[in-house]
Amino acid sequence: LTGMAGDPPGTPAPVLAGCEPEYPPYCLVTPDGSAAGFSVDLLSAALAAMNRTATFRIGLWADLRTDLAAGKLDALPLVGRTPEREALYDFTFPYLTMHGVIVVRSGTPGIRTPQDLNGRRVAVMRGDNAEEYLRRANLGAVIVPRPSCDVALLELSRGEHDAVVIQKLVAYQLFSQHQIRNLVPAGPPLADYKQSFCFAVRKGDTALLALLNEGLSIVIADGTYRNLQAKWFSTLKTEGPVSRRIVVGVSLNLPPYSFLNDRGQPEGLFVD
Predict the structure, then answer these.
(1) For range 80-98, the mean pLDDT
(2) Which of 61, 186, 248, 260 is geometrically suited to a Cys-Cys bond with 104, CB 3.0 to 4.6 A?
């Protein structure tokens, strides 16, 4: 494909990608209707590193994932790699790994672990990793797919469900965005619900996959990834101070990942 009228001859067409409206801070929509978020910016940056551009279509996740599989979209910036999706999409290497959590109303007794979801009404975003996880784990939960994460949380807040399973950071952002005061995580992050976020292309699109992998490698190496992390994650609200100190060992001479700065302090991508 070539670009639009007015572009230099032979200019590749923009990569048509999708963006969910309510999955902050990864994918969201600004007040003027533009796609934004960490994953949106990262995809744009990876393409720019390869002299390509992206345009974004806003839509619900269930529609976007279907459109990518059908070839109506070229790529998605935020897709958790799961066994259920391997037959539909090809994935770049993961650029971020996060865990899910069970969210309940404050004071809800008896829900802390996945096993406690047996017989409970659990809302999830339709087609999300959370829905796939619950069906795969066969916990006996009554799974209630909803169109988006914010709908699931707002309904839980009003008493319509027993719990929501969601990516933890997304939950905190939506608590703040919608001023939800009566929901809390129940127990620790779910050890067996891990999301490895990647860019995804339709199955067999090896050319675009190779381009995105190379672009992603470049923006990680040149510091763009780190700058985007600072932009989107540095001011996020979480549940408060950590309860204990965690001691981590790093190599002292592995720049840019870990090294000692001129003050003798550990520094680098892994340290940050």
Answers:
(1) 93
(2) 186
